[in-house]
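Help wanted!
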Amino acid sequence: MRRRLRRGLRRMTGDGATTYGVGIGWRPEISGFVADLPGLRFVEVIAESVASTGPPPALAELRDRGVAVVPHGVRLSLGGAEPVEPDRVRHFAQVARLLDAPLASEHIAFVRAGGVEAGHLLPLPRTREAVDAVVANVRRVQAELTVPLALEPIAALFDWPDDELDEAQFLTEILDRTGALLLLDIANVYANARNRGSDPLALLDRLPLDRIGYVHVAGGAAHDGIYHDTHTDPVPDAVLDLVTDLCARHRPPALLLERDGHYPEAAALRGELDAIAEASGYPAIT
Amino acid sequence: MTGSLADRQAALVATLVAGAPVPPGFDDRLVGVARAALLRKRAGETARQWPMLAAGLGHRWFPVFAGWATSRPTRGSLRDGWDLARGLVAKGQLPTVAAEELAVREASWRYDGSTAPRRRRWPAVRRVDGALVCQVAGRIRVVPLRRRRG
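Answered by r_m:
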């Protein structure tokens, strides 16, 4: 109860006083590794993987020892032209309550259309019509959530042909109209800039960095000249350099390593967490 | 491009997961890269859900899966692998090591191939080469069949 109250107060002040430092995406395959991290203060869990009856025991244990657990949705399809499905929204909000989460997050993307699942996050056209669709869906989710929502721009392998807004305008408009926080995936910033041949720092300079709830850091690999944000490869040095560039402009309250498969040995994973700590200036959690 | 956002999103998803042509204005090559990436991801998810099926096909796993999946949008990795395994059974091409995995699922769940599988409430038995897979109250036992000698 006291913890809940403390979080609530922090949330209300909204002065960025709460910093969580470096965290890691909680996955069942690495739950032992995550539980053993001595300095861990926050993790993220895929919202759809948590049952509405409650989190798995290993995750509940983290929550109960005061580690902040953030549900990260991947199937809401906030960017879908259709209204977000009420059952999914209910589950998402329920999971945030069960985890006693300080905030929740989802993507600026769509994952299904016309009743067909794409199986992955797909980019939106950067048009006013798409902004309206996202804003309407975000408001539907915010109406059920009791904590702030952070929105994550995705890595896109291709763009729509008829963009009206550039990326910074598109994101800023959505954040302004919804009051949502930004979940900035620095590896996505890197991937998009590399694949589009644009300057990632130019994008950072135009985003509302003071609205960042937390940051994702992940690895990837290039195939056939295209960089893929795989979450199954090591974090490239160029992404860590961007972490440093970002923190020099405005250090976010938290940075989280996302790893989704091909898990390396514990020492390698600890090395990645240490590298993020070093790049951001936060204490090591290993 | 014309049409509502809903129509255009549906057309793009059909391109990426159901083999429809690339909508006008998109970069053919990049959309093709995305299509291949989605297929790889889907194959990986299905292999995690059906490890013996993937292992049994070995280096043929990805081409077999891709050949099956290219024109079929996913219905989740459980059903993707299930539909593929049943298709292989019908063609007599299911790897022997994958038979028990399929039999366990068939004994545990009722799946009509078109709606989501549901847990069986009643005991069920499936026969595989050399064994019986028995499910009672959700628990599975594999009972080896005694082979007749001579």
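OP: Thanks! One thing I noticed: The two ends of chain A are 29 Å apart (CA to CA).
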